[in-house]
Amino acid sequence: MATTRTEPQAAPPAPPRAAQERTWLWVTLMLVAVALFARFGHPMQIAWLRNLLIIFGSLLIEAMPFVALGAVVSATIEVFVPASSFARMAALPRALQIPAAALAGMAFPVCECGSVPVGRRLARKGLSPAAAVTFMLAAPIVNPVVIASTFVAYRGRDSQWLMVGGRFVLGMIVAMCVGWVIGARAPGELLRGATVTDEADDHDEPRGRRFIAHLSGDLVFMARFLIVGGLVAATIQTFVPASVANRLAALPVLSILAMMALAFFLSLCSESDAFVAASFTAFGPSAQLAFLVFGPMLDLKLGALYVGTFSKGFFRTVLIVVTAVTLVACLWMQVIWG
Amino acid sequence: MSAVTAEATTFRWSPMRVATGLVLLGWAVMFTTLWLTGRTYLYLSSRTAWLVPMGAAIMSVAAIGRLWTARTANDEPLEPRAAWALGVIALPVVLVLALPPSALGAFSAGKRSTFTGSAIGATARDVTGPLDFVDIGAAQSFPDAMQQLEARAGQPITLEGFVTTDASAPPDEILLTRYIVTCCVADATVAQVRIVGLPPGNYPSDEWLQITGAVYPVGREVLVAANTVQQIPVPSQPYLTP
Lengths: 338, 242
Hints:
The structure holds 2 protein chains of 2 kinds.
Chain A: H1 17-40, H2 47-80, H3 83-90, H4 94-104, H5 112-124, H6 129-142, H7 144-153, H8 160-182, H9 187-190, H10 207-239, H11 252-266, H12 273-279, H13 285-294, H14 300-309, H15 312-337
Helix pairs in contact in A: 2-5, 2-10, 4-6, 4-8, 5-6, 5-14, 6-8, 7-8, 7-12, 8-13, 8-15, 10-14, 11-13, 11-15, 12-13, 13-15
Chain B: E1 4-5, E2 10-13, H1 15-37, H2 51-68, E3 71-72, H3 80-98, H4 121-124, H5 133-141, H6 143-150, E4 156-164, E5 174-180, E6 189-196, E7 208-218, E8 221-231
Parallel strand pairs in B: 6-8
Antiparallel strand pairs in B: 1-2, 2-3, 4-5, 4-7, 5-6, 7-8
Helix pairs in contact in B: 1-2, 1-3, 5-6
């Protein structure tokens, strides 16, 4: 596949055609075997398997349309927006670019799965990596749909405005901190080398063909990471009770760390996580806020997407910066608001 | 597949593009099937159901476009790694289409956090309407909502939910459960109410029941004293939206 190609000089000799056809056959056989088991093996009568399969299916059925929407936006940017406009933005001072990118997230009402393909595209297209990453991390938290859902989830509670406002402000701050740490890295350092679709980059092709090439390329590229992340998240949701975190609820620092860990493993969509956060009544508002800020920036399915999309150090950078800044900010909140 | 010659260059079907197109087509078919059969509601809440037709539309465009442009002058073999990746992407499609339709069951009820009512009784909910799981969830979590429910003690209530067995409960008691889903099943929280005074019988886990009775707030819990119990099929929308 085009997306997995390495540099021409490093390219291994193509496997013989017979081997290719054999793989194709094995893949088909695997799918048929899965279909037969699903249909006639009564998997839904095994309680844990039924729950795992439904949660896995539902994570993907919700996330894939968002990824698809992100891929449409990403392909549109690639094909219809001239690179020169991004080059102009990239020439601005970084102190201006990063806050502007975080604010621009407000205009992009999708959850985190949709914002990864767009962030990746912006970095490839010539926007500075710092700004692209800031946008990618801020958009799923500061957009109006997510603000509204947080508002509804906390309706009638004393902490309502603290949650809505805190999530917005802290989301902006954390996204900008990651952008600032990413700093002056070149786009080549940010993105994983083997993500270039050479077919799609042939600018002699008509726009429609290039659009389709980018759209299908992005979908196929993102889907496999989403599927792996979704499967792990569904397994954890099936076997680990959410109440494991409850015994840490009363402990000052650990309660915040526990909620961040929970957000990571549950892998919820940023448009619905406020309802789940609100259900952890044993935890104080600052720990709930940590859940709401951390989850949309880093969780299992995003982790898989980041590892596939960005260079090796990126996941580590996001993990360290997001954890540290969220923890410190929420601790201060705990001190001030209890 | 046959090679087609055009003027100077030879255009061939690219195995890579054909396979990609077919996998995307699979996703389009899956979304369309969910949409047309109403099985969307086994996976998503009524609030996010619009994602399914949108997914169907974008996947269809991508799939048809990919197959339409699948002939190329370059040699694009389907390498083994790419073939396996496409197989993984097709896996959820095969599962969702082949599995018999079913909803999240009693197994998860003990592992999920309890629904606390996004709309907290007193301030946000119309408490003059018919009572349901959402009111009871709010009452069991917040003193204000409980006070409000106390004013309506003894009023009739009709609930539909599935049985979760409680080993320590007497034979005329069950927990009736319903999941509250905001976006997708992964965010499901549990709304549960204890039903008392049931006619003696066997109430297995995961069986769906319609219960009419009277609601009684007792301490921090809400009880429903059953008048009638009827076995029902799984509703077309098995999850509630807060």
